[in-house]
Amino acid sequence: MLISISRYLALVLGVLTPLAETIRRWSTWREDPPSFFDDYILGAFLLFGAWRVGKDAKSGRPFLAAAWAFMCGMAYGSFFGQAARRAAR
Asked: Least crowded by CB within 10 Å, which of 1, 9, 60, 62?
């Protein structure tokens, strides 16, 4: 994947993820407050990685790769956590 595409997607998801999750969890955030704020951390990490790549592509790549890895880890935990809760019903 071209670094410019990865940077663009990081910018888009860095803004949309916290926004969408804020809308989705607006009435239920008191049930599990830490899970509400992890999306802000995810968005900030993606935006930071995209910013670093924009400054200098070579030195920014590790930061962007780490941001994508963090996002994938969060998605993995979220997906299988929900699957386990549904299986327990």
From this structure: 1
